[in-house]
Amino acid sequence: MTDERKAPHVVLAYSGGLDTSVAIPWIREHYGSAVTALTVDVGQEGELRGALERARENGARDARLVDAKREFATEFLVPAIQANALYQGVYPLSTALARPLIARTLSAVAEEVGADAVAHGCTGKGNDQVRFDVAVHTLSPQLRVIAPVREWNMNREDEIRYAEAHRLKIRVTAQSPYSVDENLWGRSIEGGVLEDPSRAAPEEVYDWTSHPGDWPREPETVRVRFERGIPVAIQDEPMEIVPLIRAMNRIAGAHGVGRIDHIEDRVVGIKSRETYECPGAIALLEAHRSLESLVLPRDLLSFKSGVDRRFADLVYEGLWFSPLREALQAFITSTQEVVTGTVTLRLHQGSARAVGRESEYSLLAHELATYGTQSRFPQELAVGFIHLYGLPNQLAHARARAARAAPAEDVGAARAVLPTA
Ligand code: ARG
Q1: What is the pTM of this model?
Q2: What atom in ligand 1 is closest to the CA of residue 94?
Q3: 325 C-alpha to center of ligand 1: Å?
Q4: Of 37, 216, 277, 371, which is most buried, counting CB atoms within 10 Å of its CB?
Q5: Interhelix angle for 241-254 vs 279-295, to 10°?
């Protein structure tokens, strides 16, 4: 190998798994580059320090760990909660939300160390390559993006042979047929038998949610407090956002909440079967949605649901760093001023349902809604309201009926019939 100090320098998004471990010597061989391995801690489990040690042993010039959990929660997850963000109505975007942050960290470290390229371990078939590449091109257009897995055409067996030939230190885990990505917001499991959408996911793929046989028979009640659309307390105990999400993952996971089995449409045009477990996300999103329904007026709720969906699509499609995402988020933030209050969730047998909500900004006025004797709703005015409300339909219906009855040549006949008050 040539003198690496003069060679180009690549910052690799490194997880410690097989792909990105093999990528270290592969990049050195194929690009003659020095490699800095970068692990961004977004709340994935596993021993990140040990992985850094192995990166150095496997030939990285440097290996770094950046703790980005708080940034992840405040800059990415909070907006996602406020946007009730679920791609195709079911996926809380756990992987999709972390990619722009990892890409931003890659760009920053690359600029700091004077690297001329970044690298990631994505295949050429998924959304993640799109998210990484687009984000890096946007933030640091001078950086090249290298994607070894997209280029090298090795299968898993080839990679293991390559690792053996290069005497790489790989963490010997029991041969898992699954590809897993995880962070604070959830866990994605792909591959193996999961690729057959006709078959139920085997229990072994789940890690954060307990097995149906272990779900508690009795429901559990959890109170979640929000301030301006941000979850701030569980069971009336104030918590920082990162521990709060962790706590919710644990509490909801015990009841099997947040298992998702989804036929998903990827950006690159592929349909795929995706399996997730996102217990905390599903519980918090349900609580937030329910609180919004109490404090936001009907027209705003309706309009916002369209904005929310567009926001979720943008995140999924890798367009986090875009003017449209920023503008949608500004709108969403402006709606959250009154999203303060407490929601009671009932967790039971795989589901999280809001069963109570209260807020000082509640728009539910008991004296209007009640059927009891204290009602102050002027029912007598309802008659006049209903008459005017239905008038356009009444007229249109009468015209249509007349038009059907009239002989084809007598167009004017339709005008003869007017609705009577
Ligand atoms: N299909 C999901 C998404 O696009 C999950 C991707 C999981 N990525 C992974 N490298 N295993 O967000």
Answers
A1: 0.94
A2: 12
A3: 20
A4: 37
A5: 110
Rounded CA separation 376/368 (Å): 6
Catalytic pick among 61, 64, 99, 325: 99
Does residue 184 carry a pLDDT above 60? yes
How far apart are the CA of 411 and the centre of ligand 1, in A? 60
The first and second tokens of residue 343, run together, are 């929601």
Q: Predicted confidence band at 415 (pLDDT cuts at 50, 70, 90)?
A: low
CB under 8 Å to 203, separation ≥6 — which residues?
A: 211
Residues 57-82, mean pLDDT to the nearest whole number: 98
Q: Are 322 and 135 in contact (CB under 8 A)?
A: no
Strands 351-358 and 341-348, bridge-based pairing: antiparallel
156 in Cβ contact with 130 (< 8 Å): no
User: Any idea what the Cα angle at residue 89 is, between residues 349 and 97, rounded to 5°?
Assistant: 100
Give the distance (Å) from ligand 1 centre to CA of residue 95: 6
Q: Contact 2/27 with Cβ under 8 angstroms?
A: no
Catalytic residue check, 410? no
E-assigned strand segments in 74-229: 117-119, 144-146, 179-183, 186-190, 220-227
- Confirm whether 99 is a catalytic residue: yes
CA of 275 to the centre of ligand 1 (A): 9
pLDDT in tens, 310-325: 999 999 999 999 999 9
Beta strands in 14-170 (DSSP E): 34-41, 62-67, 117-119, 144-146
Atom of ligand 1 minimally distant from the CA of 121: 10
User: Tokens at residue 402, please?
Assistant: 């007349």
Active site residue 128: yes
